[in-house]
Amino acid sequence: MEASGGAGGGGEKFVYRICTATEWEDLQKDGFTHGGELDKSSGFIHLSDHNQVLSTLNNFFRNTKLDLLLLQIDAGKLGDGLVYESIDGINSFPHFYGPARSFSPLPLDVVIKSDKIVESDGQFGCALLG
């Protein structure tokens, strides 16, 4: 897996987190999240660039019955804990490890906006997707 540090990997100011309503509620209540089971077993928080959100939704959330939200995150506030990693030699995704790759929780203060993701006629949408 090829890695590059910092938010410059994708050239974006924001990265995005697809989360469940429960994760979002816990993040607001606790002030941080360690993500879901996949994040915990991977040792980092899975994120996407704006242009990756729809493919991530289609590949991993197509048949979910859970309420989903999209969080817009200020990539600059994640510092060098944000790492872009190549997953297949072509596509690089942002992952948040935290300082010194210590699997730090994602803090609430990095979230700029949130919006409910809706699925209608097999298409995902939300205001943050444009």
UniProtKB/TrEMBL annotation:
InterPro entries: DUF952. Pfam families: DUF952. SUPFAM superfamilies: ADP-ribosylation. This is DUF952 domain-containing protein.
